[in-house]
Amino acid sequence: MTIRSKTYKGSGFNELRFEDATSKEQLYMHAQKDMVTEVLHDRTTTVDHDHTETVKNNQMVTVVVGQTVNVGSKNEEKHDQKVAVAHDQTITIQNDQTLHVVHDRHKSVDNDQITTVTGFDTETVVKDQKVSVKQSYTLDVANITTIKSGDKIELICGKSSITLESSGKITISGQEFDFTAGGPANIKGKDVFIN
């Protein structure tokens, strides 16, 4: 059964069609131009199988209070995305989170940044890593600090430097040396040269 109205002085039409053939049941709606739906209270839509929605131009969704989206197993979006949050944002993940960026990633924080890790923190860099601090840098470790390098470790401050090489050679260089020990000071070597 089809209910169709014809556009006044035009070829368009609005249509409401019912298909009742077995295994082909369908309800079809056609709006020649705009379609407006107004619900004064709640609205519930249930789709027992797949849902496909195509918007060929722009889409705007306005939620005055809150919004909850529950995805059972998979949520996939393939497009450019820009998110602007006018005030605060809080994200809570009840289980694990995995972030995979195929190309570059840039992060900019205009004010302070605080990171708290309750368990272990592991960072793996396949190539080089550079940390640049424009002012002071403080490392506070409550227990043991271990620094390992396969080839060489260099500590440089102005004209002073300490170099540790994998061969076992240690080089200390500076303009002036002051040694102060609260207890015994021992220097042991196969040959000790003092010039």
Task: Describe the 3D structure.
The chain has 195 residues and is mainly beta. The chain has a domain at 1-39. The chain has no helices and six strands. The strands form two sheets. It has a three-stranded antiparallel β-sheet with strand order 1-2-3, with no helix packed on it. Strands 4-5-6 form a three-stranded antiparallel β-sheet, with no helix packed on it. The N and C termini lie far apart (110 Å). The relative contact order is 0.04.
Helical segment count? 0
Which value, in Å, is the CA radius of gyration? 35 Å
Q: Segments where pLDDT lies below 50 for 5+ residues? A: none
Give the class from helix and strand content and strand pairing: mainly beta
Strand content: 15-25%
Question: How would you write the strand order of the largest sheet?
Answer: 1-2-3
Question: Helical proportion?
Answer: under 10%
Q: Judging from the principal axes of the Cα atoms, what is the shape?
A: rod-shaped
Protein name: Type VI secretion system Vgr family protein
InterPro entries: Gp5_Vgr_C (IPR054030)
Organism: Hafnia alvei
Domain Gp5/Type VI secretion system Vgr C-terminal trimerisation: 1-78
Helix and strand arrangement:
Blueprint: E1 2-6, E2 13-19, E3 26-30, E4 152-157, E5 160-165, E6 170-173
Antiparallel strand pairs: 1-2, 2-3, 4-5, 5-6
Based on the model shown, name its key terms.
single chain, 195 residues, mainly beta, three-stranded antiparallel β-sheet, 0% helix, rod-shaped, Type VI secretion system Vgr family protein, Gp5_Vgr_C
